[in-house]
Amino acid sequence: MCQSPKVLKLEFGWSYVSLRLPEFISLPVLKTVHFKSVRFSGESRTSKFFSTCVVLESLAIIYSDFSFPLLENLILSCPKLKHLVIENDINGENWYNKCYCKVKVFAPYLESLRCKDHFGRD
């Protein structure tokens, strides 16, 4: 029997790679997720992925694309999340012409948040 991973790291250098999450995924012991250069698409599946990671404690999203219209809302509903990093501040990137989605975080035990990005203020 295959065991569920505790750590998931997807890093794709400096080019975005589309992440197409499955309709159903079960990662009951996943504690750490690190995405680098991922292009999120599909609000429902992306939000569902994070909500099914019930013991997730650490999440890092680095140099990734969650721009509208691919994703209207990035919903991070993680009941055990303690550490969240979102860094998309790419020097030289034409960021001011992008329309980013709204990021909504539901993490009652969050201890640290590091955010470096050019989000719209709503």
From TrEMBL:
Cross-referenced InterPro entries: FBL13/AtMIF1-like (IPR050232), LRR_dom_sf (IPR032675)
PANTHER family: F-BOX/RNI SUPERFAMILY PROTEIN-RELATED (PTHR31900), SUPERFAMILY PROTEIN, PUTATIVE-RELATED (PTHR31900:SF30)
This protein's name: Uncharacterized protein
Organism, scientific name: Thalictrum thalictroides (Rue-anemone)
Species lineage: Eukaryota, Viridiplantae, Streptophyta, Embryophyta, Tracheophyta
